[in-house]
Amino acid sequence: MSRKQTPSDFLKQIIGRPVVVKLNSGVDYRGVLACLDGYMNIALEQTEEYVNGQLKNKYGDAFIRGNNVLYISTQKRRM
Fold first, then answer.
1. Considering only CA atoms, which of 20, 50, 22, 49 is closest in space to residue 32?
2. 7-74 is classed in which CATH architecture?
3. In whole angstroms, what is the distance from residue 21 CA to residue 69 CA?
4. Domain ranges within the chain, ordered by starting residue
5. Strand 42-51 versus strand 28-36 pairing type
6. Is 8 helix (H, G, I), strand (E, B) or coil?
7. How far is the C-alpha of 63 from the C-alpha of 35, rounded, in Å?
8. What is the superkingdom listed in this entry's lineage (predicted)?
9. Do 64 and 41 contact (CB within 8 A), yes or no?
10. Strand-pair partners of 21
11. Are the C-beta atoms of 43 and 63 separated by less than 8 Å?
């Protein structure tokens, strides 16, 4: 019988990979997931901020407070 993957397992597996973090406000942050904690506070590297699908800012490192996060998804690496 195979073990089911929990959300916590998934999040541990994607550390170091490119992700999209969607906020409750509708803003997207795209970058490399550096770390996160049990409160869903997120640290990203090589971060880009998108508003309405348009690139607005680039940040080296960014910290996102967990209560603002709607979801996290993996993204394919850009060429």
1. 20
2. Roll (2.30)
3. 7
4. 7-74
5. antiparallel
6. helix
7. 10
8. Eukaryota
9. yes
10. 29, 72
11. yes
Could you tell me the two tokens for 53?
């699908």
Q: How far apart are CA 75 and CA 30, in angstroms?
A: 8
- The pTM (predicted TM-score) of the whole model is 0.85
The C-alpha atoms of residue 68 and residue 1 are separated, in whole angstroms, by 37
Instruction: For 17-64, write each residue's pLDDT tens digit.
Output: 999 999 999 999 999 999 999 899 999 999 999 999 999 999 999 999
The count of other CB atoms within 10 Å of the CB of residue 21 is 23
Question: Is it the case that residue 77 has pLDDT exceeding 70?
Answer: no
Question: What region, left, alpha or beta, does residue 11 occupy, with left being phi > 0 and alpha being psi -120 to 50 degrees?
Answer: alpha
CA distance 1 to 16: 29
Higher-scoring residue by pLDDT: 79, 45: 45
Helices (DSSP H) in 1-78: which residue ranges?
A: 7-13
Task: Give Dmax (Cα) for the chain.
Answer: 47
